[in-house]
Amino acid sequence: MLLNLTSGSRFSGSLNCDLSDLSSLVPQPSLHYLSSSLSPLDFNLSRDVSFINKKRNLLQEVCAREDQLLRVNALGGQLLSAALLCRGQVPLSTLRQYVTRFQSKVKFASWSDPGVKTGLCSVPPVGQKSAMLCLVNSTNMTNFFNDSLNHFNLLYKRKAHVHHYTKVDGFDIDDFLLTRESLMSSAMKYSEAANYVEIPRLKVR
């Protein structure tokens, strides 16, 4: 994932973008958690011709649940922002079609910009003709945070593994509670973003 994310800074391309260009995916400082999906996920170092020439629908694969790199249905919630970063033999016209189809598949929050950040690097990953990395900032991160909180509460209730951390110099037992509060705050922020209703502006006649 990181190799595809930084490819625009390392190789040439007709529509390259680097990490600084992706800052627009964070609408507010507290809403900075991105979910990612990658196509293709399978990897073959043998340079098998059938693997390299396999015809892929990159957009369909990055939208599939099994290609998500987090256990969260990111595309099922409201999107705050999104990016499609392609590598290899992907014509610019095809990338535009991907963007149009992607926008028709997902739902953006009413107050967010429905535009999709794009990147196109001409150098494909090793052993592949093309690849796509999809980054989304989704309100469904709330579910991911709540699941993490449930797992944390179950373990912390039994003080499981706590002794490993208390042996570390400078670590305090209260740091667990501060971390839990931070996670709860992040879940609340994304929940508020999903339920936010933009007040229409008055039109002056």
UniProtKB/TrEMBL annotation:
Family affiliation: Belongs to the tubulin family.
Gene Ontology molecular function terms on file: GTP binding
A cellular-component GO term for this protein: microtubule
Pfam family, one: Tubulin_C
Protein name: Tubulin/FtsZ 2-layer sandwich domain-containing protein
Keywords of the record: GTP-binding, Microtubule, Nucleotide-binding
Species the sequence originates in: Cuerna arida
PANTHER family per the UniProt record, alphabetical: TUBULIN
Coiled-coil residue windows: none
Tubulin/FtsZ 2-layer sandwich domain: residues covered: 29-147
Highest taxon listed in the record's lineage: Eukaryota
Any one biological process term the GO annotation gives: microtubule-based process
